[in-house]
Specification:
This protein has about 150 residues and is mostly beta strands. Helix content is about 0%, strand content about 55%. The chain is built from no helices and eleven strands. The strands form two sheets. Strands 2, 3, 5, 6, 7 and 9 form a six-stranded antiparallel beta sheet that branches. Strands 1, 4, 8, 10 and 11 form a five-stranded antiparallel beta sheet that branches. A hairpin with a 2-residue loop joins strand 5 and strand 6. The radius of gyration is 17 Å and the shape is elongated.
Length: about 150
Amino acid sequence: MQTAALNFNHSLTGAVRAWEAVPEVPLLTIPRGGVWEVNYQVRGVALLPAPGAANTDTGVVAGLYKNGALVPGTEAMVIYHSELAGDQGKQIQATASRQFMHRFAAGDTVGLGASRLGAFGTASVVSNGDGRTYISAHWVAPEGDTPA
C-alpha cells in the first residue's frame, strides 16, 4: 500500500529539532499484523536569508510515526545547508528516502514526521511533480513468524 501522488508545501515552524507531524501525508493504516517493509521518501526545501553578519544554517530531518510516536531508527537527514557570514542567501532542495523492516499490529497507523535543523531561514517538506513525498508499506511475514 502507498499514499497517493500528493501536492503540498508544509512549512516546518516548530523549534529547532522539534518533531511535528506532516498531516498532508495521510496516515497509512496497517490492515494485518506482521512484519512490514516500510519505505518513505521526503523532498525537503531549505531557504537561507540574504547575507547576514552571522553564520546561518537550516535543514530538514524526517522520520516515521507509529500510532503517533516516532519510531527510533527511522530518521533520515533530508537536507542541510550552512553558510558563512556574508555568503549569498539561497534555496536548495533534495530528496531522501529510508527503508526498514518493522513489526506492526493490525490497525497500527504510520505517519510522516519532520523537524527543522538550524534557527535561520525556512525549512519545508514538499511534494509535487518535481519530486514526491510518500510512504509505502509491503507486508512480508505474518505475526509471530520466526526463522527456521
